[in-house]
TrEMBL record:
Cofactors required: FMN
Annotated GO MF terms: oxidoreductase activity
Keyword entries, A-Z: Flavoprotein, FMN, NADP, Oxidoreductase
Family according to the record: Belongs to the nitroreductase family.
Residue span, Nitroreductase domain: 10-186
One of the Pfam families matching this protein, by short name: Nitroreductase
Protein name according to UniProt: Nitroreductase
Length: 210
């Protein structure tokens, strides 16, 4: 755990990436597995993770992200896109996966399935989309932590126009919405931000014990 805290102190939201340095295929697979193993409500994972390597597409995305250099300079651009307009189909697909993975009869999961459907399907459409968008941040957290362990920099980004991202990437046609973006790579030596002392609230200001 001491190493974990040390790595959390090491990481920061990188402002300038070294465009010449690329994350290895092995490390990328580790980051993908960390994302895949992330917790999510009911275990449904109601999102897709788009990894953009194509420089032309990233150049097209940059103006929709306030021109931020991380979009094009980072080794990889990862977009967490929540599923929209979800319903029974997604829940049934999850139950089939549980049945196959755990070698259980699908009938044994019907009660749990009915419970989820009763909770989720009654939500207004906007509330469901907000809920699925929140799930992407759990996966983002896993990415941040795993990357810090590998000494790979990640900049989580909300500074972009989701509508434009959706159009450029064709996400709206797939019932997906770009919820949060992560630029992944290695900090540039010229990024002065890496030398700033980390600013966080004190324990007294942050925690309430009841």
């Amino acid at each position: 755990m001491s190493k974990f805290i040390e790595n959390q102190n090491w990481r920061y939201a990188t402002k300038k990436f070294d465009a010449t340095k690329k994350v290895s295929k092995t490390d990328l697979e580790t980051l993908k597995e960390a994302i895949r193993l992330s917790s999510s409500s009911y275990g449904l994972q109601l999102y897709k993770v788009i990894i953009v390597e194509n420089p032309e597409i990233r150049a097209e995305l940059q103006p929709a992200a306030w021109g931020q250099s991380q979009i094009v300079d980072a080794s990889h651009l990862i977009i967490f896109a929540n599923q929209t307009n979800i319903g029974e189909t997604e829940i049934d697909s999850y139950l089939e996966n549980v049945s196959k993975t755990r070698n259980m009869p699908i009938d044994a999961l019907s009660g749990y399935g009915d419970f989820m459907k009763g909770k989720i399907n009654t939500l207004p459409e906007e509330a469901k989309n907000i809920w699925t968008a929140k799930q992407t941040y759990l996966a983002l957290g896993n990415l941040l932590n795993a990357a810090a362990e590998l000494k790979i920099d990640v900049t989580p980004m909300e500074g972009f126009d989701p509508t434009q991202f959706n159009q450029i990437l064709g996400l709206d046609k797939l019932n997906l919405n770009a919820a949060v973006v992560a630029a992944v790579g290695y900090r540039h030596d010229e990024d002065a931000t890496q030398h700033y002392k980390k600013v966080r609230k004190s324990n007294d200001d942050l925690f309430i014990t009841i």
